[in-house]
Each structure stands twice: as C-alpha cells, then as structure tokens.
Design a protein that fits this description.
mainly beta, five-stranded antiparallel sheet
Amino acid sequence: LTVVDEVFSINPISAQTIYVYPTGATLPLYFGPTQYNAAAGVTTANPVTYALTNNPSWLIIDTNTGVMQGTPTDNIKDPDTYTVTITAATDYCGATASADFIITVKANEWCGDGAVQAAQGEQCEGANLNSQSCVSLGYTAGSLTCKTDCGLDVSACKTCEVGASCQTSDTSYGSWFCAQRAGPEDGGDASWLERRYDVVTDYAYDSNCDCAASSNTCLWSQGCSGTGSQTCSPYPHRCCGTAASCCVNGRCVNGPYSAGGYIDCGGGGGSDGGGFTTGDSIAIKSITWDCGSLKQKASGSDNWPITWANDDSQYTSWGDGQGFSQSGSKKSLGASKVSGSSASSLTGTDLKTWPANGADSGIGKSYGILSVSGVLYMWVGEGGSGSNTDAWERSRVYKSTDHGTSWSKASWYFTESNNLHHPGFCQFGKDYAENQDGYVYSHTPSNDNKGVWLMRVPKNNIMNKGSYQFFAGLDAAGNPLWVSDINQKSRVLTHSSGTGMPAVIYYPAVGRYILMMEYGSFAKGNLAVYDAPNPWGPWTTVAEYTNWCGFSTTFFWNISPKWINSNDFTLVFTGTGSYDAWNTVTGTIVTY
C-alpha cells in the first residue's frame, strides 16, 4: 500500500472490503476512502472483523465496519508519519489477511494566507480574530491575540469579579473635631466625645480587571474628652471633611456647645414636625444580598410580616390568597405558623380559624404581628373590601392566647383621620426577649406618605388604647418626648420620594435597629434600609435600592427574627406579579 497526496490509494487486501474514513478526525489529518474488491462467497453469514496494530494511541478502528478515526493529540508543526497494520478476519474457512497503511499527519497548510479557514481548523489569521474577544470566550476582560499557528492566544485574557475587593484598604487621617454623644451605646448623656474621622480608600476590580480605587469611606474613632463648652467643627454629613452640618439626636452640631442651646433640625412637636436622618450609617457599611438564593411559596398571597414565638415557631399573616395550603377559596386576610430552622426547610401551616373570628369575618390586611410572653398580637387594617386604601379606615389590634387557634379584637381602633395606617411591630428576638425597657414599639406610615410615625405601649397593656404614647420629637438634651395626644405626634423618618410600610427589628449582632421600607412608586423594588441606636432614631441610611435584586415588583420586606446567624439573615418579602407570594433571600450585614 502507498500514500498518494495523503490519500490512500486503492489496493486489494486478500479480496476483502475495508473502508477507511476521516470520521471524527480533526484537520489537518487526512483519511481518504480505500476501496477493496469484494471476495466471492463472503456474505452476511460470514462477517469480516478488523483489528489495528502499531497505531498511535489517538487512532482506533471499528472492529465491525473497518472505519478508522481519531484526532492527533499534539500540535503538529512538521509532518508526522505512522505505519499501522490492519488485520481482517472471517470465520469463512478461518481466512485472515493484513496490510500496512502509511498515515501522514501534517501541519496546517493554510495558516498565513490571510483568511480564517474555520473548516480547516483555523481560529484566526494575524490581526483577524474572526470576531472573537476575551469576553466572547467567557473571560471578563483582556487582550486576545492570534498565535503563529493560527490558534487563539488567551494568555492576556483576565477573569475577575468586577467590584470585588482586590487589595487591603488604605487609611488616611483627617482632623479632630467634637460631637455630642450619639446615644445609649455612647453613654446616653450630653457630654462630648473627641472623634477623629478617617478616610478609608477601598480597592476593587474595575471593568478591565485592574485593581483600582473604588470608593472613599468615612470611619470614626472616639474617646471621651470631658464636658462643657467647646468649639466644634461641622459634623461630616456624607464624606469626610464636608462643610455641611448634620443632626445628632435631632440637634444641629455646628458650633459652640451650650446645654439646650441647639437649633431644632427635625423631630419638633406637632403633626407637621419633620423626621430626620443623619447621613450614611457609621455602623453598617453595606448589606450583601444573595439574590440567587430566592425561594418562593404560597403563590398569590402577599404581605407576610413575621414574628418569633415562645414555642420556637414563627407566625405570619398574608392577604388576598390561599396561604401555604394553596387550596380553598381566596381569603382577604389569613394567618399561618412557620416551622423550620431555615427557609430551605420550612413548613407553613395555615391557621384555619382566622376567617371565622377575625376582622369583619376575615376581611382586612396586616403588616404587623408580634409574640410577647407567649401571646400573639396582630395589627389589622379594616374597612370596605379590606384591600388597598379601604383597609386604611381602621387600624385595630387583635390578640391570640393560643398561638392563633382563636383571636379576640380590641374594642377600639385608630382611624384614617389620625393620618396613619397599617402599623407594624418592632421585633425583639424570640418572644420579645431582647427588649429591655418594657415597651412595645409600632412604626406606622402616614396616609400622606410623607413619613413614619412611632408609638409605644407597655408590653403588658397592648390592648389598652389609653396606654399608648406617641413620639413627639426630642427635648433640649436629645431625649425623646412622648405624648398621649395623637395629634401631637412627630415623624421619626421622612423620605423626599414618599414612604411605604416600614418593618423594624432590633438586630443584636450589630446592636442597632434596622428599618426597611418602600420609597417612591409602589411595587417597583424601591427598598430603603436604615439603622439607628434607638427605635426613634436618629436614623442613618444604610442603602437605597431601585429594582432591588432585579425583583422589580416588590414592595414589603422584613427580616425573619429566628433565621439570624450573627451577621447573616433571611429576608422575607413580597410584591406583585411574579413576587405575589412568600419570598425569601439571604443577606449579610457588613459592618465597619
């Protein structure tokens, strides 16, 4: 047998028929068809089998058809020749025959002609990358080039997580200034702290995968420096060294200190008093969301405020759906028990008794549920159809002493004329055990969407309307003022774009209260997150999101009080459309 232009010539092998094809071969490996004359008397009753010897490891033969195939394992630059032996055998008289084949593997003949011959195995030609790039090949950034053998060179392509930290932050130090003690964690009095603000430069991968300065963050260190009159530089509002003053416990820190001498910059008495924030949080740097951890249940039911009871179960309420059971008629308002150690292992059990003795036979909406001393309480918005602004007519509290088996309602309620609706309950761990001052706190949105009110009541007197007090601002020393007249209440928080239903929890791992609420347009995934040292503030901004997590129709969020592990937590939330359901994702609080 001979080789002619790398195509096998036609020769017989003991009058047997053997086919050699390029099946599965990668150019530039050439197999031409080699046809042999059929032997007389060889039929399907006397099949021929084939064997291959002296072959390279990448070359095989089909024992039944005689088809040879394979892909050379090396990057061939010079002709490489193999002499292989094919043996054919049949049980017809025990006949066998063999022949040698010369197989030549050559380097690409077309590389260098200026055109990308993809059919011949070329990936590129010089500067012609055949519309490929590092990004199209799955890398993040970098420079793609063509090698001399017309294969792509990806050695300069880069893979990184854009925005991820890439080196240790640098810290530069600013000047000293004075600030009033901010709250109980600082001692809770009117003395002064000497603080030093530091600029911390963080580094992260940019879109080119280069390690670059990404942001400047202010940090504060502190130490006591006595009391009395001292001249103070303006308190930084957002970034270190800005000239803007800002509020500390509702007072402007902007000059010489004298007891009670501050100008009120928020939280004044009266229904039109403004709430206040003090810029960016100095305790929580950010929240990392695992949006891919989304889990959904109870499709068609929304709201889902949640509390942790003494029986180690969590309890929640929902509206306009069928709850976890996903059966029966839709209910305006329902309540459920949530068992399990995580969102991945939960069991939701609907409390069937609620519609029978709930608000107006189960018509209403709730964004607040709480367990205190083994008793469940629920704020319910009642009125009309029980949906939308109809449920703003009355805000009434309900009580269950048997974990939701039965409920009784208060004889009183707040009305829409009080400029509030759908109060929530501030969560304090399992069965309210982390609360220290004996009060239950309820944050509630105003009907005009201009801010958030705050009321409190002794935890053993929740069903007594006369025991409720309303936040009315701060006194000269920065302490909260509480009044019994609801018309003298003052907002604790405002947002220029409008406020939705707030959900508040005391988060023990960071020693702060965290408030989450919708802002701006309804059901657009606009989530605002704040933190504060007290239920009344001063609230500082952790983050504001538009189209949070890409969940574009969400509108209410609250942290599960049970599913917290140090700085890691599970968020329960709801929305419209695809998110009209029980939804959870996990998150992590990043502190300074």
